[in-house]
Write a structure and sequence with these properties.
alpha+beta, two-stranded antiparallel ribbon, 8 helices, 49% helix
């Protein structure tokens, strides 16, 4: 996706600006809601395709909000944008909702867990592109510097580096 649309960057010119990507390239709005709750369930994020909006919990830290937005972007790109193909994600009527546990992949259903793992992998690849992530880590050899440059949490970066075979 990024290869064809260009990559909007954060002010540091390194990290991917996922909000600009969602707003300008995917033509969806982003709303930050305090105490985001739908149908009595506390949420980290929700995709509401009918209204062309992604909702994100406003009280989460910046890095978590970015990851949640990228995660919801995955639901948009992998399911909603692929009309006619089998759904990768279970929708709740006209929306896709993700609780904190969903993003952490602790759902009981294997299919639900798989869809959330795919969304997390998409989010990680979007925010921490392999080549850029490797380059930053090799140049700095610092988790904190690399995480700061990419605008992600230390924990998310450690997981991504493990996936890329750079840390045990």
């Amino acid at each position: 996706m990024l290869r064809y649309t260009g990559v909007p960057r954060l002010e540091n010119a390194i990290g991917v600006d996922v909000e600009v990507l969602v707003r300008t390239k995917l033509d969806f709005d982003v709303a930050y809601i305090e105490n985001l709750c739908i149908r009595g369930k506390q949420l980290s994020g929700a995709l509401i395709p009918e209204h062309r909006v992604i909702l994100v919990e406003a009280f989460d830290i910046w890095e978590r909000r970015r990851f949640t937005l990228a995660h919801e972007c995955a639901h948009l790109v992998l399911d909603f944008r692929n009309a006619g193909s089998p759904s990768l994600f279970e929708s709740h009527g006209d929306s896709f909702i993700c609780a904190p546990d969903d993003i952490g992949t602790t759902e009981d259903s294997p299919w639900q867990k798989r869809r959330e793992v795919l969304a997390n992998q998409f989010a990680a690849a979007l925010l921490m592109p392999g080549r850029l992530c490797k380059q930053l880590y090799v140049e700095n050899n610092s988790i904190d510097d690399c995480a700061g440059a990419l605008g992600v949490s230390r924990q998310a970066l450690q997981i991504r580096l493990n996936q890329l075979g750079l840390r045990a």
